[in-house]
């Protein structure tokens, strides 16, 4: 991002480790954002009510209340984008944070570039929702084109035939491009709420879709697996 650009958005950094908190604040201020900080869950909740916050970066491991509780409390009255920050071995926690209403997550340690990419995606989805405008009916990244109004998928200009479930999966990811979608959310969206948590069908569907859209299905360039959490369709 252009360091001279000044954003009007305020980001609340909730992190008890002062070193990480300072690193994030430094990166965000450098990118032109306004920052508020909180070292505990209680502090985070009062900061949220005291002043307008446009996005929350939330460390899940807080000294007082569980990060998950902060998400539930905030979601009672606010749709503010929440990006969860979590340790590498906390896959289950990441998934339940997303299912509880967090928008995305970052795994420690992360770079300033990753941080900015997640924030950019969160604000883009927020603005699309806030304006009530239709999301761009088209996904077009590196030769993969998905026309959401026509239900058409092209690779390098050539139409690819996908099954109805492959299309449901692909369009769900395309509408949320750049964001991780949890396995539970995907299964619910494709097969309905009664389907349970059987991930076998999703893995099979994902494999057949990847064979159609990925040049190397074994090391996918479009749909990345977020181990233990879900899948993310890359937006760049
Ligand atoms: Ca912590």
Account of the 3D structure:
- The structure is a single chain.
- The longest helix has 19 residues, at 112-130.
- A 5-stranded parallel β-sheet has the order 2-1-3-4-5, sandwiched between helices. Strands 6-7-8-9 form a 4-stranded antiparallel β-sheet, covered by helices on one side.
- It is α/β, with parallel strands linked by helices and 236 residues long.
- It folds into 2 domains: 10-130, 3-Layer(aba) Sandwich (Rossmann fold); 138-233, Orthogonal Bundle (Arc Repressor Mutant, subunit A).
- The protein has helices at 18-30, 41-50, 67-75, 91-99, 112-130, 164-175, 183-191, 200-213, and strands spanning 10-14, 34-38, 55-59, 82-86, 104-107, 138-141, 144-147, 152-155, 158-160, 180-182, 223-226, 230-233.
- The radius of gyration is 18 Å and the shape is globular.
- It binds calcium ion.
- Residues 16-17, 59, 61-62 line the site of calcium ion (CA).
């Amino acid at each position: 991002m252009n360091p001279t650009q000044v954003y009007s958005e305020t980001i609340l950094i909730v992190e008890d480790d002062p070193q990480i908190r300072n690193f994030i604040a430094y990166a965000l201020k450098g990118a032109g954002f306004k920052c508020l900080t909180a070292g505990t869950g209680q502090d985070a909740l009062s900061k949220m009510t005291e002043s307008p916050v446009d996005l929350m970066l939330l460390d899940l491991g807080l000294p007082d209340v569980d990060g998950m509780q902060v998400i539930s409390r905030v979601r009672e009255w606010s749709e503010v984008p929440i990006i969860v920050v979590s340790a590498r071995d906390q896959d289950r926690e990441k998934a339940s944070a997303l299912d509880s209403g967090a928008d995305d997550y970052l795994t420690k340690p992360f770079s300033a570039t990753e941080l900015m990419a997640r924030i950019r995606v969160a604000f883009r989805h927020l603005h699309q929702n806030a304006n009530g405008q239709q999301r761009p009916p088209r996904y077009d990244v590196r030769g993969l084109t998905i026309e959401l109004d026509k239900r058409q998928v092209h690779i390098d200009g050539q139409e690819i035939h996908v099954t109805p479930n492959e299309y449901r999966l692909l369009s769900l990811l395309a509408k949320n491009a750049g964001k991780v979608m949890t396995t539970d959310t995907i299964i619910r969206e494709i097969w309905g709420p009664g389907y349970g948590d059987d991930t076998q069908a999703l893995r099979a569907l994902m494999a057949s879709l990847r064979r159609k859209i990925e040049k190397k299905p074994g090391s996918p360039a479009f749909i990345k697996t977020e181990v233990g959490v879900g899948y993310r369709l890359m937006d760049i």
